[in-house]
Design a protein that fits this description.
Elements lengths: L1 E6 L11 H4 L4 H15 L2 E6 L3 H13 L4 E5 L8 H10 L3 E5 L21 E4 L4 H11 L4
Parallel strand pairs: 1-2, 1-3, 3-4, 4-5
Helix pairs in contact: 3-4
């Protein structure tokens, strides 16, 4: 199984950015956790991050050609603004899970809108880094 883990803008600043919301662990800690978990489960994983919407769209489209079996996506702020990410996910028809480290549903009103959720089969919020592991396991179990 091949899984793509995509992280959007500012997630490279984990550990620095609002640690009261996102915690003290870094982006490198997140990638190490994901990589270790996938190695144990025999899952091939590719973790990518970009602060640029078009790059994220390109990564989603490339996943189709790379025959990726599932996408875990934390679009960051693009969650609330990007129809382009939604359209890219719909175009490739790869099972996807939306993840957010914080409880976005308990934050500012504008964060209540998620365009990618219109495609994703599951949304996981407020579980910190463990949300990524839950998403990977969900996809590995056939997204049931």
């Amino acid at each position: 199984m091949k899984i793509l883990v995509l992280n959007g803008p500012n997630l490279n600043m984990l550990g620095i950015r609002e640690p009261d919301i996102y915690g003290a662990q870094t982006y490198d800690n997140l990638i190490a956790l994901i990589t270790s978990h996938c190695e144990k489960k025999g899952i091939e994983v590719n973790c990518l991050q970009s602060n640029h919407e078009g790059d994220l769209v390109d990564y989603i489209q490339q996943a189709y050609f790379d025959k990726v079996d599932g996408i875990v996506i934390n679009p960051g702020a693009y969650t609330h603004t990007s129809v382009a990410l939604l359209d890219a996910l719909k175009a490739v028809s790869i099972p996807a899970v939306e993840v957010h480290i914080s409880k976005v549903n308990e934050r500012e009103a504008f964060r209540q809108i998620s365009y990618v959720s219109y495609y994703c089969s599951k949304t996981i919020t407020g579980k910190g880094f463990d949300g990524y592991i839950e998403a990977i396991d969900f996809l590995a179990d056939g997204a049931k």
